[in-house]
Amino acid sequence: MSGRLQFIKNSPGIPREVSHKGELAFGQLKRCLYIRAIARESEGRMIMDIEIKQRFMDLWDKYFPGAGLPIVFYYTDRDDAGNLLKPAKNHRCVIGDLGKVMRGQSLRFDGDNIGCMGGKRYLGFTQGISPYFEFFLSCGIPGKLEGERYKKSPELVKKIMAIQPWIAAPAKYIVFKRWDKLTPEDNPSVVIFFAAPDVLSGLFTLANFDTVDPQGVIAPFGAGCASMVMSPFMELTSKKPRAVIGMFDVSARPYVKPQVLTFAVPWPKFAGMVNNMEESFLITKSWAKVRKRIKAAGQ
Asked: How far apart are CA 41 and CA 8, in angstroms?
């Protein structure tokens, strides 16, 4: 890993937020550089295996009939990967934009076209937060700022932000695509499912199928986009990456259907899940009952 880190330290383009002295603890900086190295090593290579693309689609249709295909994201410097959205003039939630991806449109984001400070932070394009964020997330400021009241006090928010990890985007863009739109040039980092409870139960159980640790899936507190991007992307640094259940963010809930949560899976974990599908509970009579209900509901 030291070789990777040395290569990146000598490379241009490290975001100002990362290279600025004192802005990140050493451990966070090391992790950030390591992920950047991973991304750079694979950039430009045709590593999206079309065989696994089709294999997953066949298995998904077999065991989760009628359920929507997942979307993926990855970072890249390519200017031809997805449609670059116009800069946001007003507040615009990333979750709302991802609805277009779920309908088949491939989108590319950078630091200029994300219409939410939280989105910019949790997609890795700034480490900054909004002024008075500690009041915004908690009790607000009477007569000046309405608080979301997701945390008990501004002091608690400050403590959380002081230890919250952050990783800079390892490339110029982040690209989101629906699974069936992937090409050999794409390099997925994380696979994201928008899932109703029956589908979620299958994904959760499959993610824990080959693990000793019962925490093969986690649900950290955070913004909707953090649970889909930042948290699962950070899991790529783990020897045993975990899946992340998300979209508990009350402010982001209106952008998804009432019965939907997200299930974000780092690529190595996802590949293992696909390989395990036909020897897992999915082939049992127990799942057949749930599968029938999924198909009937068109989840």
From this structure: 10
Are residues 228 and 192 in contact, defined by beta-carbon separation less than 8 angstroms? yes
**In Å, what is the CA distance from 276 to each residue of 199, 205, 206, 235?**
16, 11, 8, 20
Tokens of 69: 């295909």
Rounded CA-CA distance 147/176 in Å is 31
Give the whole-angstrom CA distance, residue 159 versus residue 153. 10
CA distance 103 to 118: 24
- Model confidence pLDDT, tens digit, residues 275-294: 999 999 999 999 999 999 99
Which of 56-64's residues contact partners 24+ apart within 8 Å by CB, and which partners?
56/179, 56/274, 57/179, 57/180, 59/274, 59/277, 59/278, 63/202, 63/277, 63/282, 63/287, 63/291, 64/199, 64/202, 64/291, 64/294, 64/299
Q: Which residue has the tokens 């982001």?
A: 252
- Rounded to whole angstroms, the Cα distance separating 64 from 42 reads 31
For the chain, domain boundaries: 2-127+166-297
Q: Is the pLDDT of residue 14 over 60?
A: no
Paired with 67 in beta bridges are: none
Q: Which residues pair with 191 in a beta bridge?
A: 72, 265
